[in-house]
Amino acid sequence: MQSRYFDVYEGWQKDPEGFWRSASAAIDWFKEPEKIFDGDQGVYGRWFTGGETNTCHNCLDRHVAAGRGGQRAFIHDSAMTGRQKSFTYAEVLEEVKAIAAVMRDLGIEKGDRVVIYMPMVPEAIFSMLACARLGAVHSVVFGGFAAQELAARLNDSEAKLVIGASCGLEPGRTVAYKPLLDQAIELARVKPEHCLILQREQLQAELRPERGELDFSEVVEKARGRDVPCVPVKATDPLYILYTSGTTGQPKGVVRDNGGHMVALHWSMENIFGVKPGEVFWTASDIGWVVGHSYIVYGPLLAGNTSVIFEGKPVGTPDAGTFWRVVSDHDVKVLFTAPTAFRAIRRDDPEGELVEKYDLTGMRALFLAGERADSETLKWAEQKLKVPVIDHWWQTETGWPVAANTVGLGLMPVKHGSPTRPMPGYSLDVLDDAGHPVPRGTLGNIVIKLPLPPGCLVSFWNADQRFREACLDEFPGYYKTADAGVMDEDGYIFVMARTDDIINCAGHRLSTGAMEEVCAKHPDVAECAVIGVHDATKGQIPCGFMVLKNHVSREITDIAREVAELVRNEIGPVAAFKTVMVVHKLPKTRSGKILRGTMQKIADDMPWKMPATIEDAAVLDEITAILKANGYAREGSGLKQSA
Ligand code: COA
Ligand code: AMP
């Protein structure tokens, strides 16, 4: 039977407002929207204007009121501590009210910003929901980022409050978060008035009450039982800011609204992911990323699912069977993770022997996103799990899938390498650099016709102009995804590569430009280039090339180590910046542009062309030689030059 997708997509095309009006009926509104879409508001228009609602109400209160209070909202499963704990919707509501009461006592009001810097503990999610309850705007910062990155987010968001934890747990080490937070506040121009710190038993932090630092559990305990009603917010008010890598070191604050976000996520849960209220949905990611925001927290709660909060890794905690243990322990119906997690599992358990050990019969589908899913990984997952494996494509900016195969509406035929077709709300084109549509099957810039659907970013925080310049100006009438790809004859999209400096390392989005800015701070570095090179597990890893200043006579290995440490300390361990090569010159065009693309192709053994405008072709010989010495360019890409 043909998937219902085609009818639904066509229905949206014929009447976009009617489509979203009917989807919005699934949400409780304190005041119904006056318009479904208002093209005169915002940068490219706004959704559900005039409407009033509250995201926390829709995630919690209304389920409790409807009699679902006893159903589990979350299962926290920590492979790091070996503990599991469930929370019903009613229990989460009580916790959230208590946190909201504390925040209100600290002066947090609608519109105030709150930074959350925590590991994968339930309190992090309860804090997000408490912000939503008060109409405060949360900004979650991933724990693997360093103090400098946290400071940049404190400054840009002008947060009044930080909710943090004493530590995170990584395999083999306890990461002290509090010293990183202290350092970030020291560096930040805008200091928060208070910090609420969750003390974890693995490592306690020293709290300084004179600096507004409070023990999270202590104050929340005292606030238990207090009733804090949901503050009505406009559909167009911001729910959160999520900073993501842009083309410079300055992260972009993606702003998500309340109304459109709820409508889109709710629609996606049943129609794309195919889960019903009461079923267990597990997104193995981190709340520091958009995937965690949308599909650990808001999507599953809006749809009345039970969401798994997992603290651990796909391998090594304790082994490559952890995911299957979690699926079978909690009867997970749908699992969502990044392809890199599967590559790591397959590397450690190539025959899938650990898969066999667990009962996975309840699982209906696996969703993969965050980076390109290679067909070997897809095939392995299909064979071992015996469920549909769905590659779907989206970004921090869009907040929910741009292209997917729809489990809920019925599956379309799978083409490996393609996240299938655009979802309702998204009209995709592929354009050449001059903005002309390219023929089907030809590589070009993937763009989304404006307006973006509900749930997508409305702008960058306090930076409408930057949003226009980065995303809207280059292709008038379109949002530029900064992904290059192909649409085939059947309308399937193939996402091939980024058109900017972003790399995807272990499913984490990183800017090589930001890394270059840090490398350039080393006193011995004259200039540098950072590129993403292929890695069998992580997809891509950064690789830095440094040209040293004249007369530097120190040991090269010392300088390389220091540069790597600098990036680890300023961006964070998550950058996985470990490969540093010192060269005499960087390959450039005659106009001085560094030929990063050519370097990457050489490193990855891909065919490349000698750029006609190269300043000094011999420089590429040194690059090739040093790459080979470091285990790249193994097949001698110099021999593979394309005509
Ligand atoms: N707090 C502090 N440090 C963190 C951290 C956190 N929350 N998350 C990661 N780090 C550190 C790690 O400890 C590691 O440090 P190290 O250099 O000292 O070893 C570094 O950052 C890189 O971590 P990671 O990218 O997780 O690599 P890994 O080698 O530890 O694990 C994978 C590799 C593939 C198993 C892991 O990256 C993974 O599970 N990826 C899935 C990604 C994902 O869910 N992405 C979200 C989009 S869907
Ligand atoms: P992030 O904002 O961290 O979610 O990263 C978004 C980027 O990851 C996209 O712009 C793509 O480059 C890449 N990406 C995400 N999902 C996919 C996918 N299914 N296939 C190919 N690339 C993807």
Question: How is this structure best described in words?
Answer:
This is Putative Propionate--CoA ligase (Propionyl-CoA synthetase). Residues 515-593 form the AMP-binding enzyme C-terminal domain. Keywords: Ligase, Metal-binding. Residues 5-59 form the Acetyl-coenzyme A synthetase N-terminal domain. This protein folds into two domains: 5-312 and 392-427, 3-Layer(aba) Sandwich (Rossmann fold), CATH 3.40.50; 500-641, 2-Layer Sandwich (GMP Synthetase, Chain A, domain 3), CATH 3.30.300.30. The longest helix is centred in the N-terminal third of the chain and has 17 residues, at 89-105. The radius of gyration is 24 Å and the shape is globular. The protein is built from 19 helices and 32 strands. Helix content is 32%, strand content 24%. With 643 residues, it is an alpha/beta fold. The strands form ten sheets. It has a seven-stranded mixed beta sheet, sandwiched between helices. A five-stranded parallel beta sheet has the order 7-6-8-11-12, sandwiched between helices. It has a four-stranded antiparallel beta sheet with strand order 23-24-26-27. The two termini are 47 Å apart. Bound molecules: coenzyme A and adenosine monophosphate.
